């Protein structure tokens, strides 16, 4: 199946604009599901202390070396964890990011499809327990995740106020370019080898972010999560 996909030169140009701080979108002030999850469920959150990934699409929440499915675990009671507004907000954010990426790259928003995994991440300075937790390795998203064509990162906490370390780094010969997470800051870039990147180890505090990915291939698209 063929689908439109901008060429590598285009990527490089866009990548440079990102490094100059252009591909940033400020969504600060938004209350996202993870932020509401914590105060509503302090006991659960304490028990799930090692949780690092939450995927609202599948319900997968990482707990130490394993994943539990929140939707299965809570069943009908999931409504005590999330509300319809949380899901609406998630969809609104996804749409806003999608429109912004389309505009920045000069493509039609309808040619972008949300893809998986799209997830919340929580990183603190506790030791990684599985290779999966080793977020600091340099990687190419398309290789790591397969279907990604565009990666976006929405940060939910502030570098140096909420955590130390944890900056996002584009790995480039001669010039590493970093993005400092700020709550509400969104950065986005094409997901190929032109954008090899890593996250610095978090030395203290807790860093929250959402990785939202898009594909140009409709076969790899996923639907927004629904509140049921
Ligand atoms: O959280 C970040 O800043 C980057 C995460 C990342 O590289 C990824 O999810 O692939
Ligand atoms: Fe990545």
TrEMBL record:
Q: Tell me the keywords, alphabetical order.
A: Dioxygenase, Iron, Metal-binding, Oxidoreductase
Residue ranges of every copy of the Fe2OG dioxygenase domain listed in the record? 116-218
Q: Which cofactor does it need?
A: L-ascorbate
Tell me any Pfam family this protein matches.
2OG-FeII_Oxy_3
The reply on keyword Oxidoreductase is yes
InterPro entries, A to Z: OGFOD3, Oxoglu/Fe-dep_dioxygenase_dom, Pro_4_hyd_alph, Pro_4_hyd_alph_FE2OG_OXY
Q: Which GO terms describe its molecular function?
A: dioxygenase activity; iron ion binding; L-ascorbic acid binding; oxidoreductase activity, acting on paired donors, with incorporation or reduction of molecular oxygen
* UniProt KW Manganese keyword: no
Gene Ontology cellular component annotations, sorted alphabetically: membrane
- Signal peptide (residue range): none
What is the protein's given name?
Answer: 2-oxoglutarate and iron dependent oxygenase domain containing 3
